């Protein structure tokens, strides 16, 4: 009986709006990792390091893309597929992203090395990717 009640509590609706989001960080080595952060989190670069939170940081040049695990609001966004510039078009190097309308032109053409915001909660290094499909 206790197990049944605790299972029901776990599926009950939350009392207020959720203010956190799962962000996936992709590195130039092909590794990825996820952190639960505030929904309004933005990358902060300090002395060449990307500060993820008060306890964790990573070399900023190692991060090529940051995106939410699930894009909660897609209003005004377009779905595109990008592929790593120096990778084959195999499934391992492809990513589907929601981006701001009109930003597709920056992907692959922008030669800058900085993370660029391409959508709310999504940043990437446009020079590391090329546009494969626009939908």
Could you give a quick summary of the protein structure above?
The chain is mostly beta strands and 135 residues long. Helices cover 7% and strands 43% of the residues.
Structure notes:
It is built from 1 helix and 11 strands; from the N terminus they run αβββββββββββ. The protein is mainly beta and 135 residues long. The strands form 3 sheets. Strands 2-1-6-10-9 form a 5-stranded antiparallel sheet, with no helix packed on it. Strands 3-4-5 form a 3-stranded antiparallel sheet, with no helix packed on it. It has a 3-stranded antiparallel sheet with strand order 8-7-11, with no helix packed on it. A hairpin with a 2-residue loop joins strand 9 and strand 10. The termini are far apart. The mean pLDDT is 81.
What topology emerges from the helices and strands here?
Layout: H1 2-11, E1 20-27, E2 32-38, E3 44-46, E4 49-51, E5 57-59, E6 63-68, E7 77-84, E8 94-100, E9 116-119, E10 122-124, E11 129-134
Antiparallel strand pairs: 1-2, 1-6, 3-4, 4-5, 6-10, 7-8, 7-11, 9-10
Q: Output the strand order for the largest sheet.
A: 2-1-6-10-9
**Coarse shape:** globular
- Count of helix runs: 1
Mean pLDDT: 81
Derived from helix and strand composition plus strand pairing, the structural class reads: mainly beta
Q: What fraction strand?
A: 35-45%
Residue runs with pLDDT of under 50 for 5 or more positions: none
Report the order of strands and helices. HEEEEEEEEEEE
Share of helical residues: under 10%
Measured distance between first and last alpha carbons: 50 Å
Evaluate the radius of gyration: 17 Å
Largest sheet: 5 strands, antiparallel
Strand element count: 11
């Amino acid at each position: 009986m206790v197990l049944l009640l605790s299972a029901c509590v776990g599926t009950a609706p939350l009392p207020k709006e959720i203010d956190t989001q799962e962000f996936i960080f992709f590195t130039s080595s092909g590794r990825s990792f996820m952190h639960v952060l505030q929904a309004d989190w933005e990358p902060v670069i300090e002395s060449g390091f990307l500060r993820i939170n008060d306890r964790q940081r990573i070399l900023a040049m190692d991060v090529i893309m940051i995106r939410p695990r699930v894009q909660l609001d897609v209003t005004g966004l377009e779905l595109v597929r990008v592929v790593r510039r120096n990778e084959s078009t195999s499934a391992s190097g492809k990513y589907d992203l929601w981006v701001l309308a009109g930003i597709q032109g920056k992907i692959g053409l922008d030669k800058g090395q900085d993370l660029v915001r391409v959508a709310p909660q999504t940043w990437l290094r446009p020079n590391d990717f090329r546009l494969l499909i626009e939908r």
